[in-house]
Design brief:
403 residues; alpha/beta; FAD/NAD(P)-binding domain; 2 domains; five-stranded parallel β-sheet; globular; binds flavin-adenine dinucleotide
Length: 403
């Protein structure tokens, strides 16, 4: 009997892991567990705010991805018993494993800010995108040109910038009476990235009539108002929080060593528990370097600044690359060879602001930062390549105009 390999999560990391395990192992015994019976192309989720019908084009059924031999179990992981080698599903039943790959992604971090979790919308699923669409639509119905609805987005990272850009595009298409505010506690949007890149993104946002507030640290939220440490309060009708991510609760109660509920993993994805590996947003994959000091500040700096350090950032690209490598590493371990050290190589960053895209540090392109049709086509091509690699070119083509 081959050992049972269990993969948790059907995001980028879990999906890439299943594909690489199916390719690398002969007749593997694979069990794939996830909350939903589909993969969702999360890095394009903001597009669904403008037009929720796009959600369907970005949702790929598990059956279209996995081979017939891989078993899929729909369920929520609520715990992991590393001694017994069991995964607890929905709190009431278990699945045993010989090898376990944790790829359950991240959840929104609220940093203990008073009232924030209760009042803010988040963007981590198709349903979240639909809720944002519905709430901004309702807010616009009650608003007038003289008293426009106030939409506030907290956090100017990948999610916040792209959400603000998409809401601005929706406002223009619908001629909706809304004002959009993007709030960031750091001095610049897209903190930790290259100043030219930050400047270009800010210009695009301002050209799209998004008011950008930097140096504004949110300290409390109630049902109408967001309060800041340094600047005046902002009243809102709809508040979307995109201020950061942390690990999933399911990992907080295990014996696996974690950092903010993300599993600490070596450069070969091994965690502190025997035969348990972690990849994607669910993991802190520590690169193999000497004098490795990972205090909280260093880790955070490295997450927000993928250009300067080699701890993989919480991005789809890093999750996919780790997922592709894990199959090979498990195959090596099973055949008695040493697993290969993995290091993240940033091939470039692409950020949309509505229909515009800003590209930065793209490998093979002589310009540092650029936008225009080439950047837009590149972003579409990256998403289309991913969809094609896990399902079909036809599916990628269907979503092409909406990415
Ligand atoms: C709006 C938005 C825009 C983004 N834009 C970009 C971008 O342009 N470029 C980029 O590289 N990255 C982008 N990102 C970040 C990127 O989407 C994440 O880094 C990426 O999704 C991480 O992949 P993952 O596989 O680790 O986790 P996820 O994609 O989050 O997948 C986690 C999976 O685990 C499942 N799951 C979660 N908890 C459990 C549980 N307890 N039990 C069972 N299953 C569970 C989920 O249902 C899901 O299938 C964006 C994110 C958002 C939200």
């Amino acid at each position: 009997m081959p050992p049972q390999i269990v993969v948790l999560g059907a995001g980028y990391a879990g999906t890439a892991a299943i594909r690489s395990l199916e390719n690398e192992l002969e007749h593997p015994d694979l069990v794939w567990v996830s909350k939903e019976p589909h993969h969702f192309v999360l890095h394009e989720a903001h597009r669904c705010i403008r037009d929720p019908s796009i959600c369907d084009k970005l949702t790929i059924p598990i059956e279209d991805i996995k081979s017939d031999h891989t078993r899929f179990v729909r369920g929520t992981v609520t715990g992991i018993e590393t001694e017994a080698r069991d995964v607890i599903i929905d709190g009431d039943h278990t699945i045993g494993y010989d090898y376990l790959i944790i790829a359950i992604g991240s959840q929104t971090a609220f940093f203990g800010i008073e009232g924030l979790e209760a009042h803010a919308l988040t963007l981590k699923s198709p349903d979240d995108a639909r809720s944002i669409h519905d709430q901004i639509t309702n807010a616009a119905k009650d608003a007038t040109r003289d008293e426009p609805a106030q939409i506030v987005i907290g956090g100017a990272g990948l999610t916040g910038i792209q959400t603000a850009g998409e809401i601005a595009a929706w406002r223009d298409e619908m001629s909706a009476p809304v004002e959009i505010h993007l709030v960031e506690m750091e001095a610049h949007i897209f903190p930790g990235h290259d100043p030219e890149f930050q400047g270009s993104l800010r210009k695009k946002l301002e050209a799209a009539n998004v008011t950008v507030h930097t140096g504004a640290t949110c300290i409390a939220v109630d049902e109408r108002t967001m309060q800041f440490e340094e600047v005046d309060d902002l009243d809102y009708d709809v508040l979307v929080w995109a201020g950061g991510v942390t690990g999933q609760d399911a990992l907080s109660d295990t014996t696996i060593e974690t950092n903010h509920s993300r599993a600490n993993a070596s450069s070969t994805f091994e965690t502190s528990a025997d035969r348990v590996y972690a990849i994607g947003d669910a993991a802190f994959v520590h690169p193999k370097i000497e004098e490795n000091v990972f205090d909280e500040q260093t880790v955070w700096q490295r997450i927000v600044n993928p250009d300067t350090e080699n701890v993989p950032p919480p991005t789809a690209e890093a999750a996919i690359e780790a997922g592709k490598q894990i199959g090979n590493n498990i195959a090596r371990v099973r055949s008695g060879s040493e697993p290969v050290d993995w290091a993240y190589i940033n091939k470039g960053t692409l950020v949309s602001v509505g229909d515009e895209v800003v590209a930065h540090n793209v490998i093979g392109v002589p310009m540092n930062t650029f936008s225009g049709p080439a950047a837009r086509t590149l972003k579409r091509a990256v998403s289309a390549r991913w969809i094609t690699s896990i399902s079909s070119p036809k599916r990628a083509l269907t979503a092409w105009n909406d990415m």
